C-alpha cells in the first residue's frame, strides 16, 4: 500500500520506535519566540546542557512586543524582560535571532517561511500552536510545550505519538470574494473545533492546488483550530517558486537535489487516509464567526443557529453560553452587526497578499467614524513591501493605523487590547473569550471582509463591494 504525504515525512524522521511507545522524532528546524522559550533555556542552564543544533534553531520576537514605535525603556516590564532574556539566551547559546532592532523580524510563522527556513519534507516545531502554518510547504510542523522546547533544544529530537491521517478535499472554483480564510472557517464550522483531534489534516483538491503560498499558509495555520495536530499541503511548483532564492533555501546543485526529493512528497495514488471530508469550493461564501470557538461560524448571508437545530446537548449549551458572552441572539443574522474595532493582522492573515487584497477594498474609502482600525503587517519585510507598493498610504488615508510587525491584537498579551464588550472584526484565528482583551468579542473573517467591515462600521457581504 502506498503512503500519504504525512507518512512519508514521518517515516523519514523516526530515529527510534519501541513498540507501544511514542516515536523519537528528529527535528529539522526549531523556531522559538520570547514567550515560551525562557523557562526552556533556564532548564538547560540548570542541567548544564548546550543547544544541540544552534544552526537549526531560529528565534524571533513577536508576541509581547509593542507594535508602536517605543523605546524599550517605555515598554511594559514583562515584555522588556522577555525580549532581553531572549537576546541573552540567543547570544549565550549561539542561536540566530531576528531581533526587533534588525531588518528581519516579525511573527514567527511569517518570518520562518520568508527566510526560507521552512521547506518541504521537514519536521518543524515551535513552542506555539500555530506552527501548523508551515505545513503549507509539505512540512510536518506542530506546536510543542515549553518542556518539549527544552527537550528539542538539548537533543534536536522529540517524543511523539503517531497521529492518524485525515484528507480534506476542496474541489472546484471559489466564487469572487471567497478566500482561503473562508475555506478554513467553513471546514472548521463543518467538522467542529475538536473534529480533527488525533489527526493530521492533508488539504487536497483542485481548489487547494490553485492557492498561493500565503493562502495555503492561512489554511494550514488554522488546522489547530480544527483540533488537528498539524495540517499539510503537498509541495508543487508554487511551493518551489516561493522558496527559491530565499536566504536559507538550498543553492546550486543542492537546490536541484532538494527539488527532486520534494517532488516525491505527494500522497501515493493507493494510499489510504483514516478519514476524509470533501467540500465544494463553489458553494462556499464569505464566513463570519458568531461564537467563542472558531467552529462557531456561518456564511455572511446566514443566521446564527437556534439551539433546537443542534443535536448534541453539549453543543447547545456551548452555543448559548457563547451567545451570552457575545451579546448576540440565536437566529440573528451576522450581516449588519456593528463593529467597534477592525484588526487586520496575525499569522493567519498578515502577509503581503492579505494586505493587498484588503487595500483594494479600502482604497478611496474611509473607515466608519466610530471604528478604530489597525493594520499590523506580519513581518518587517511585509511592512517594507507594502510601503514600497503604497499600501500604507491607502490604509492611512482611509483612517487605519499602520503598525510595526508583531502579534498585536491577535492576543491580549501586549499593548494592543480591545475593550470589554467591544466587537472586533478580526483576521486572526481565535475568538476565545477574552482573547483580544478582557470581555472583548471577536468576529473572525477574511481580510477583505474585515476591510469591508471597517468601511461600513458593521459586518457586510464584501461581494457587494466588488
Ligand atoms: C503564546 C503562545 C504560546 C500561543 C500559542 O501557543 O499559540 C499564542 O501564539 C496563541 O496564538 O495563542
Ligand atoms: S499572531 Fe496570534 S496566533 Fe499567531 S503566533 Fe501570534 S498570538 Fe499566536
TrEMBL record:
Gene3D superfamilies reported in the protein's UniProt record: Aconitase, domain 3 (3.30.499.10)
Domain Aconitase/3-isopropylmalate dehydratase large subunit alpha/beta/alpha: 7-457
Key words, A-Z: 4Fe-4S, Amino-acid biosynthesis, Branched-chain amino acid biosynthesis, Iron, Iron-sulfur, Leucine biosynthesis, Lyase, Metal-binding
Enzyme Commission number(s) of this protein: 4.2.1.33
Catalytic reactions on record: (2R,3S)-3-isopropylmalate = (2S)-2-isopropylmalate
Cofactor(s) the record lists: [4Fe-4S] cluster
Assembly and interaction partners: Heterodimer of LeuC and LeuD.
Protein name per Swiss-Prot or TrEMBL: 3-isopropylmalate dehydratase large subunit
Amino acid at each position: 500500500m502506498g503512503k500519504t504525504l504525512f507518512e512519508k515525512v514521518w517515516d523519514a524522521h523516526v530515529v527510534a520506535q519501541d513498540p507501544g511507545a511514542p516515536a523519537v522524532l528528529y527535528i529539522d528546524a526549531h523556531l522559538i519566540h520570547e514567550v515560551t522559550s525562557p523557562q526552556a533555556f533556564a532548564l538547560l542552564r540548570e542541567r548544564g546542557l548546550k543547544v544541540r543544533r544552534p544552526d537549526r534553531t531560529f528565534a524571533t520576537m513577536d508576541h509581547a512586543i509593542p507594535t508602536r514605535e517605543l523605546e524599550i525603556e517605555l515598554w511594559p516590564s514583562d515584555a522588556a524582560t522577555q525580549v532581553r532574556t531572549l537576546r541573552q539566551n540567543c547570544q549565550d547559546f549561539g542561536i540566530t535571532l531576528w531581533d526587533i532592532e534588525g531588518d528581519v523580524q516579525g511573527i514567527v510563522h511569517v518570518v520562518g517561511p520568508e527566510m526560507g527556513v521552512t521547506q518541504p519534507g521537514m519536521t518543524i516545531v515551535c513552542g506555539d500552536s500555530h506552527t501548523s502554518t508551515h505545513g503549507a510547504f509539505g512540512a510536518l510542523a506542530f506546536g510543542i510545550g515549553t518542556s518539549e522546547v527544552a527537550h528539542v533544544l538539548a537533543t534536536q529530537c522529540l517524543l511523539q505519538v503517531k497521529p492518524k491521517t485525515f484528507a480534506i478535499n476542496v474541489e472546484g472554483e471559489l466564487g469572487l470574494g471567497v478566500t482561503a480564510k473562508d475555506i478554513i472557517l467553513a471546514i472548521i464550522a463543518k467538522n467542529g473545533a475538536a473534529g480533527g483531534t488525533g489527526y493530521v489534516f492533508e488539504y487536497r483538491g483542485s481548489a487547494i492546488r490553485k492557492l498561493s503560498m500565503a493562502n495555503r499558509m492561512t489554511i494550514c495555520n488554522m488546522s489547530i483550530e480544527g483540533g488537528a495536530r498539524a495540517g499539510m499541503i503537498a509541495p508543487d511548483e508554487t511551493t518551489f517558486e516561493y522558496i527559491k532564492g530565499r536566504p536559507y533555501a538550498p543553492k546550486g546543485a543542492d537546490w536541484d537535489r532538494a527539488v527532486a526529493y520534494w517532488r516525491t512528497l505527494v500522497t501515493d495514488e493507493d494510499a489510504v487516509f483514516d478519514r476524509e471530508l470533501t467540500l465544494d469550493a463553489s458553494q462556499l461564501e464569505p464566513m463570519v464567526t458568531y461564537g467563542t470557538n472558531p467552529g462557531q461560524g456561518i456564511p455572511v448571508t446566514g443566521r446564527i443557529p437556534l439551539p433546537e437545530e443542534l443535536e448534541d446537548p453539549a453543543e447547545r449549551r456551548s452555543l448559548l453560553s457563547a451567545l451570552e458572552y457575545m451579546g448576540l441572539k440565536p437566529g440573528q443574522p451576522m450581516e449588519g452587526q456593528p463593529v467597534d474595532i477592525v484588526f487586520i493582522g496575525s499569522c493567519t492573515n498578515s502577509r503581503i497578499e492579505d494586505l493587498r487584497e484588503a487595500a483594494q477594498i479600502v482604497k478611496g474609502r474611509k473607515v466608519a467614524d466610530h471604528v478604530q482600525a489597525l493594520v499590523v503587517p506580519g513581518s518587517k519585510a511585509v511592512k517594507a513591501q507594502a510601503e514600497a507598493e503604497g499600501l500604507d498610504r491607502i490604509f492611512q488615508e482611509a483612517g487605519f493605523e499602520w503598525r510595526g510587525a508583531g502579534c498585536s491584537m491577535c492576543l491580549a498579551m501586549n499593548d494592543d487590547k480591545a475593550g470589554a464588550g467591544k466587537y472586533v472584526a478580526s483576521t486572526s484565528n481565535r475568538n476565545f473569550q477574552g482573547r483580544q482583551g478582557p470581555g472583548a468579542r471577536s468576529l473572525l473573517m477574511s481580510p477583505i471582509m474585515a476591510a469591508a467591515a471597517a468601511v461600513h462600521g458593521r459586518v457586510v457581504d464584501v461581494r457587494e463591494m466588488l
